[in-house]
Design brief:
Shape: globular
Number of strands: 37
Strand content: 35-45%
Distance between the termini: 23 Å
Radius of gyration: 28 Å
Amino acid sequence: MNSRHSKALLKVICLIGMILFLARDVLQAEELIIFTGYYNRDNAPYSNLYSMRPDGSGRTQITNFFPYSASQPALSHDGKQLAFTSNLLSFKSLNYEDIFRLELQGSKLIRVTGAEYNSEKKTGSVKVSVKDDIGDYNDNPSSLLYSFQGCKDLVTYDAYIKAGVLQDVPATNVWVKIVKNKWIGASGFVQVPAGGEETAVLGNLSDGNFLAGKPSFSPDGTKITGISGLAYFDTTALNPDGTVKEGKSPYGGFDKLMVVDLNGILVDDFKNGSGADNSPVYSPDGTRIAYSRGGITQESVVVVPANSLNGSGVVVAAKGNDYFSYPPRSWGYSSPAWSPDGSTIACAYTEYDSSFNMTSNIVLANSDGSGNIRQITSVPQNAAATSADFSPDGQWIVYSVVTSKSTVLNISDFLSYNITSDIYKKNLSTGEEVRLTNDGSSSEPSWGTAVAQPKIPTGTTTIPGGGTTTIPGGSKCPFAKNIQNEDELTVLRNVRSALQEKNEWLVDVFYEYAQEITGIVAADITLQAQLRKLVTKNISIVRAFSDKGTVRVKRSSMQEVTGFLCEIKAQAAPGLAVVLDNLIKDIEQGGFLKDNGVYVEP
């Protein structure tokens, strides 16, 4: 290639190349569907998280927590974090289940809720007092497990009885708890004296355990909305002989909405909820939260202001009933998901009869409460389509289909695990439906972008990340990490060459505005798609050049470049906007190109 032509081309593609590698974390993001995979071991249910590509290929296991589980995944909008629900090492938390978040760059795993840590060095001891109104304490005391805030391991019943107290408890106000299972347990707080002993009075074993789950990130990634609740054992459902009353269940609970920061500090909670509020999710612009309100057969989808969970809400899809039909039926809406533009909410529409037989399909509704509810799936009578999510471009819906092993689907099938579950996607324009899994155990899909394959650290909750990569033929580049794609290396070498030619203008502009440009691209999916397209075209141009002829660039390509720069300028602060405006005008008038020997074809 002629050196003059090479230099001219490099200066043109440098504009795109620099943005590419300044925003590399965004462009490296791959669309993934994160989902829950269920399995049984020793006649007990467990679950792990998996990922796959949107076409169903590349299935990869993310968690392996046995004897704990993970479920309810949610990717952050920038693709840098994954939130999920788990009872991982639950003895370290006040809760039985918690919200966790995984930072994908560096694989740092953090328990968000549950007040796990305590830095107090002085210690004391605690004697535990609890009432047994169930019978498990006396009938099978060895099944009870003890723990406290700041403990390094759980304490078995036998170990507690042998010691007579909990030892090495931080000498401050800490939580103490006893747990048998999700519904049976008790907890409370106690002020522990340094070097002394205090008694923690925990109440009844039927009081149950606190929970946190169903996470959803705010668009800026600084907050998480989810549910906080309680699972308890309802003794009123028992007969005097300890058997369960007909038509009753001893497994009770309630949930309410909350918003926490990334450290689990409460920002807001729902004080006027129904006690059965569930599945909150932020709108794409972060101003609203949609959730399902009401218990089974009584659910409606409601939208409230994100800055005030107790503010005035808008009902998007309302519960209902028809007691005059035969058999009588009722219906409800649950598990909302926002379209990328915020105009539409997808949710599950479920019909029930008086025997709690049910079927469910995915519907779309206007997010402003104006109705226009339309059904987009049609599953068999013994199935339920649920847990919908939109693709990042809004063209597809992904969802799970739960199918009973019987001829009809009944609520009891979920409790007895008489079901299978698989994941499907459907094109909203063409109606094309694609089955993505065929294992009978996949559910709760979350479709988004991820800057790296989610990976849980082993042996520690933090794995150091970062670092730089040495580019062949040059020095370390501060904009690249672990680059293996040869096309991207070609562009990067060209960028490096342009910088080595002392193009001070480009150096100054992009070093000064690197963070702002990266932030703009990171927050805009459309810009990310445009940038990928531009980079691909310019790589093709590089390959097409020879040492003969003139450097030629199609006018349409340059119009796409200036169009992309205009999009960034529209969102830029005044300083960067002026720089980009001058550059765009110079390119459009031909000065920048003519001065560098580039011929633009008509």
